């Protein structure tokens, strides 16, 4: 039997004529180049099946088009070429194509003070679509940070004030005595709670963007929040982290507003959709805020 005699079920007519919105493959292992690294990724690749009478799409053609990802850094232009391949190989069948890549960038992050550094992983995904409305790309990444509750900080300060008032009600206010008190457990009789938090950032790239600014997006988000989770930490770094948290107390609403305003002004951002989750240590549930700008379906 040779290739010409192999049955081709996909080429048959469907018994139930009906177009399908998306047909493809999910979870294909692919390598890609991003943020200066070769990364493992999982691809979801597909097209619409607009010809309702056709039995199926040609999955192998989509799979083989993904080979393009191996050879050059991931960019909007490369994604567009892959999607154009999907459509060219499905002429008469499909008018829209999409590709979603799930990966994890591993970036080296410096300590706050000491000359140390360590690795931090950032789950990320890139989604591209080509259809009659044009081509667009979305970039998503999760950034983890610490958030100190501003309400808890104010309540703790009040208790410290009360304790100070008690302890110094009958003592003269001498500099050395106050300094010693501040350095004692009485000087911090209450501490605010803080929580490990995460921001899920999704941006739609400006159509003119030539790069996928993953690292720039992460850097911008971490600088905006001021309390990114750390990697290598010595005591000097921990002290700097305590200061950063004290200077940046945040409700989830504060974090969402900060991120929205900082990301929206980036020239490569055409739209954004973000969700921040503060995994409360006061409650057994999370505090969550979402914000969108120029986001379809919002
Ligand atoms: N359309 C479709 N194909 C599937 C599915 N599950 C597995 N396949 C297989 O995917 C394989 C590749 O399909 P095609 O791309 O049509 O393969 P081909 O006919 O050899 O390639 P072309 O000559 O380029 O059409 C076939 O062996 C299908 O059986 C499915 O649910 N739908």
TrEMBL record:
Its EC number is 3.5.4.16. It is an enzyme of class 3 (hydrolase). GO terms for biological process: tetrahydrofolate biosynthetic process. The record marks 149 as: May be catalytically important. Keywords: Hydrolase. GO terms for molecular function: GTP cyclohydrolase I activity. Pathway: Cofactor biosynthesis; 7,8-dihydroneopterin triphosphate biosynthesis; 7,8-dihydroneopterin triphosphate from GTP: step 1/1. It holds the Pfam family GCHY-1. It catalyses: GTP + H2O = 7,8-dihydroneopterin 3'-triphosphate + formate + H(+). InterPro entries: GTP_cyclohydrolase_FolE2, GTP_cyclohydrolase_FolE2/MptA. Belongs to the GTP cyclohydrolase IV family. Converts GTP to 7,8-dihydroneopterin triphosphate. This is GTP cyclohydrolase FolE2. It comes from Pseudomonas cavernicola. The lineage of its organism: Bacteria, Pseudomonadati, Pseudomonadota, Gammaproteobacteria, Pseudomonadales. The gene is folE2.
């Amino acid at each position: 039997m040779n290739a010409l005699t192999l049955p081709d079920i996909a080429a048959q007519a469907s018994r139930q004529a009906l177009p399908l919105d998306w047909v493809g493959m999910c979870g294909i292992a692919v390598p890609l180049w991003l943020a200066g690294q070769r990364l493992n990724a999982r691809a979801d690749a597909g097209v619409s099946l607009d010809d309702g009478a056709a039995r199926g799409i040609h999955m192998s053609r989509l799979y083989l088009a993904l080979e393009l990802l191996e050879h050059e850094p991931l960019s909007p232009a490369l994604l567009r070429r892959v999607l154009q391949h999907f459509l060219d190989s499905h002429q008469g069948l499909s008018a829209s194509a999409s590709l979603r890549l799930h990966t994890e960038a591993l970036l080296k992050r410096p300590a706050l003070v000491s000359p140390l550094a360590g690795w931090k992983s950032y789950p990320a995904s890139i989604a591209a679509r080509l259809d009659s409305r044009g081509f667009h790309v979305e970039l998503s990444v999760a950034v983890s940070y610490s958030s100190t509750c501003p309400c808890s900080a104010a309540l703790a300060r009040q208790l410290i004030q009360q304790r100070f008032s008690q302890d110094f009600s009958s003592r003269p206010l001498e500099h050395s005595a106050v300094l010693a008190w501040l350095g004692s457990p009485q000087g911090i009789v209450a501490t605010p709670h803080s929580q490990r938090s995460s921001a899920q950032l999704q941006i739609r790239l400006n159509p003119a963007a030539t790069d996928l600014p993953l690292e720039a997006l992460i850097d911008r988000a971490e600088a905006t929040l001021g309390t990114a989770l750390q990697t290598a930490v010595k005591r000097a770094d921990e002290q700097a982290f305590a200061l950063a948290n004290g200077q940046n107390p945040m409700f989830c609403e504060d974090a969402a507003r900060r991120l929205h305003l900082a990301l929206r002004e980036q020239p490569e951002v055409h739209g954004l959709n973000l969700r921040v989750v503060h995994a409360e240590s006061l409650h057994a549930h999370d505090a969550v805020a979402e914000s969108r700008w120029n986001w379809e379906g919002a």
